[in-house]
Design a protein that fits this description.
It is a single chain. By secondary structure, the chain is α+β, with helices and mostly antiparallel strands. The protein contains ten helices and ten strands. Helix content is 30%, strand content 16%. β8 and β9 form a beta hairpin. α3 packs antiparallel against α5. Bound molecules: adenosine monophosphate.
Length: 304
Amino acid sequence: MENYKVIKALGQGTWGVVHMAEQKSTGRIVAIKKIKSTRPEEGINFTAVREIKLLREFKHENIIELVECFTTSDLAVNLVYECAHTDLEKIINNREIKLSMADIKQHMWSLLRAVEACHNRFILHRDLKPDNCLFLKDGTMKLADFGLARMYGTPKTRLSPEAITLWYKPCEMLLGATEYSAAADMWSVGCIFAELLLRRPFLKGHETDLSQLDEIFTMTGTPTENNWPGFSTLPLVSRGLTWDPIPPTPFDDVFPAAPKDAISLLRSIIILDPNERFTAAQSLNHPYFMNDPPPTPKSGLNLG
Ligand code: AMP
């Protein structure tokens, strides 16, 4: 810690406290996340190791830079990141910031580029939500918080269905799938897109997975073997969980102010069957990004 001068606390995460600090040798302002060891006898915290493994050598314009990491005598791991100015949750909740359709397009472009970069490296983020989309002062979005991220690939890895914050969690995970993959992150991307258009969370379940499933099915309609082949083999369904059939809600009614091309892209992402859901690469090629209005240049974004 002697290389840094702590300036102030920035916040408290699940795994530890984050401080703004100055790197004494360079004057660079950084954010230091201190992750305490939960069980000292087991060595350093596994989420820290995960995050270090994935972020080291991962340089991308829209992924948070891990500057360095060091341990302290209490076995805490200190992760040093470039310091962000704000995040997308704060922007969405700040009523003084106007979010134009062009601003939303810029945010979605940056987010999809970050997610595409992760998926190209077989990394699942598994906790995509507005508060993990940080912004530098110059308007660059930086995807952060890789504490839940995992590598995936073939043969399909069994993954815990517990990851991902409830409102951004896809139906396959809520139904107990353990072989989900990149499409799970894309569901969360769709929820963020919808939240930008609505300026409030899109599928706001009440604490339980079943309540979240109800929110989802009210929007998408209930799943059937027709619209989601194989869905009945998912753990919760094969154990007997059923729903009364309901039709989908037309997106034009939910997003009356959104342009047609935005709704078309959203419809391609918010799809029950993960095999049908658009990938990040497909989404970046959607006409939405080519059509007017062009995305606001990042220097023109109002970050509050
Ligand atoms: P986390 O543990 O990643 O959830 O972070 C906890 C808090 O610290 C959140 O409120 C973040 O906004 C803040 N934070 C995390 N990383 C950074 C960063 N690189 N720059 C600025 N603030 C950050």
